[in-house]
Amino acid sequence: MRIFIVLLAMNALCSPYQNVERHRPNKVTTLKAVPVVMWHGMGDCCCNPLSMGYIRNVIEENVDGIYVKSLMLGENIASDTERGFLANMNELIKNACEQIRNDSLLQLGYNGIGFSQGGQFMRAVAQRCPTPPMRNLISVGGQQQGVFGLPYCPGDTRLCNIIRRLLDMGAYNHYVQQTVVQAQYWHDPLHEDDYKEKSIFLADINNARDMNPEYKKNLLNLKNFLLIKFKGDNMVVPKESSVHEEDSVDVVAVVVFYSADCITLFKMFQWFGFYKEGDLDTILPMNETKLYQEDRIGLKKLDETGRLHFLAVEGDHLKIDKETFIKEVIEKFLK
């Protein structure tokens, strides 16, 4: 039986009452390999021994003398988990960049790994904070073009219900944008103008609103950008929902088409594919999107120079067997 790395299982969620390992310092003092910086996903935390702590151990066991830093975006485990739901992402990116800049073991560069929503957050670090340099970027199930519907919400039911109520106010509502993490990578293809004007995070890092040449320049400094998607991804719920007429569509109602087809579409978003503007029936692969064709952040250039890589993994969201992780991620991009 294969051993699975399950990064987002219900019994592995962080809380102050669970057996979460301490935010321990790495014992490495002399670097023998390029360090790794990790950003966890929604409902997880920096140091859960069943998720980020386990991944850290797997990397350390397979790369001699490597330094692995798992970002904690809060004062403690509880606040780190909470900030995966309620935070201003621009402030959290600044926090992450400051942690990286202030870490003496990262000054010569590092490899970044982001899990689920941490994938787009780690990309923002690469684009906004070029010093110290990120060498390789690995997005594990990241929603790089955003989401159009609330993903499966793990963890505290009360907190998840709060997020849903806030999204019901309107994902592009000013207060919601400043507060709800998932709203900040909400991408509504039926209202692209609202997305471009009001999205405070995703529209910015995807250069959808104004072209920031530094974002493209910094991403092109990567040696490699690996995008991992999961073939059996069931994160988006509900799986089935009625189709609403356009004039009745609101923030919650746009979880339409969440049948088996919708899950397939969600997986495409992990590879920068997305809905055609104004059309929920058509999904464009990455190379047919404006983001790619206009090369707004450097994806086309990375692709043409052989530095953009794609990996499709069997299994549900963030579920990858240990052997595959070692062979396809550690051996190829972390050694």
From TrEMBL:
Q: Source organism lineage?
A: Eukaryota, Metazoa, Ecdysozoa, Nematoda, Chromadorea
Query: Could you identify this protein by its name?
Result: Palmitoyl-protein thioesterase 1
Q: Which reaction does it catalyse?
A: S-hexadecanoyl-L-cysteinyl-[protein] + H2O = L-cysteinyl-[protein] + hexadecanoate + H(+)
Species the sequence originates in = Necator americanus (Human hookworm)
Q: Which GO terms describe its molecular function?
A: palmitoyl-(protein) hydrolase activity
Q: Which Pfam families match?
A: Palm_thioest
Can you tell me which residues the record assigns to a coiled coil? none
Q: Which family does it belong to?
A: Belongs to the palmitoyl-protein thioesterase family.
Query: Per UniProt, which keywords does this protein have?
Result: Disulfide bond, Glycoprotein, Hydrolase, Signal
- One GO term of the biological process aspect: receptor-mediated endocytosis
